[in-house]
Amino acid sequence: MNFQQTVFLQSAAKLSQLPKDIGIEIAFIGRSNAGKSSAINTITGIKHLARTSKTPGRTQLINLFEIEPDKRLADLPGYGFAKVPASVKKQWEQTINHYLAQRKSLKALILIMDSRHPLQATDWELIHWSDQIKLPLHILLTKCDKLTAAESRKTLASLHSQLKPYPLVTVQLFSAIDKTGCSQARKKVEDFLF
Ligand code: GDP
After folding, report:
1. 13: which residues sit within 8 A by CB, 6+ positions away?
2. Chain-centre distance of CA 120, in angstroms?
3. Tens-digit pLDDT profile for residues 8-39
4. Residue nearest ligand 1's atom 15 by CA
5. Which residue of 32, 38, 171, 183 shows the fewest CB atoms closer than 10 Å?
6. Binding-site residues, ligand 1, Cβ < 6 A
7. Centroid of ligand 1 to alpha carbon of 172 (angstroms)
8. Highest CATH level, class, for 3-193
């Protein structure tokens, strides 16, 4: 699959603005600063692809990328900003909840977590939610270049053990810096798309 053909399609502030709900969509979601944009750029091999999502005013939007006709990546707004007003947080939750609940072409989630701070409260909410509706969820433990090999092994083992009750959840180490796990992540996205 040629990820390098991926292009920015559009942004959407609400579901009605999303492209037609056909084909297959894989959504990237995670706490702000966890490395979501870097992961999208690394997986597609296009350096500044996800930078669009960082444009001021676009951070609360769903950004869509098209890999080929009817195969899309969705970059969902980051969560967990410490000091956002409650109204902004509520808006985020509404947008995401609607998207996750209603988007028929959504076939899997890629959950981005900083490998040094995995499985925070909102991450668990997403895991429970995807488990309930039987949506596959793949976790990228990002920035693993900041861990020693022993810490990486320990983190991965701990996650495997905590996620055992969730058969549709998979997890891997990832680094946008040294490309650890890049081909594994690409393979996963491809599997979800076909
Ligand atoms: P987002 O807010 O989740 O989209 O996060 P970004 O992709 O913008 O990354 C947030 C910060 O973490 C930036 O300063 C990145 O350069 C850095 N970062 C992202 N991925 C990695 C990684 O794999 N390793 C290291 N060391 N830093 C990373």
Report:
1. 60, 61, 62, 95
2. 15
3. 999 998 889 999 999 999 999 999 889 999 99
4. 35
5. 183
6. 30, 32-38, 78, 112, 142-143, 145-146, 175-177
7. 17
8. alpha beta
Sequence-ordered list of residues with C-beta below 8 angstroms from that of 115, at least 6 positions apart, any chain:
141, 142, 143, 144, 146, 147, 152, 155, 173, 174
The angle, 0 to 180 degrees and rounded to 10, between the axes of the packed helices 182-193 and 36-44 is 80
* Domain residue extents for the chain: 3-193
Strand order in the sheet with 169-173: 7-12, 62-68, 71-75, 24-30, 106-114, 137-142, 169-173
- Are the C-beta atoms of residues 141 and 171 closer than 8 Å to each other? yes
Whether residue 52 has pLDDT greater than 90:
no
161, with CB counted inside 10 A (0-12, 13-18, 19+), is: exposed
d(CA 182, CA 21): 28
Q: DSSP secondary-structure letter at 20?
A: P
Which residues are bridge partners to 109 per DSSP? 27, 137
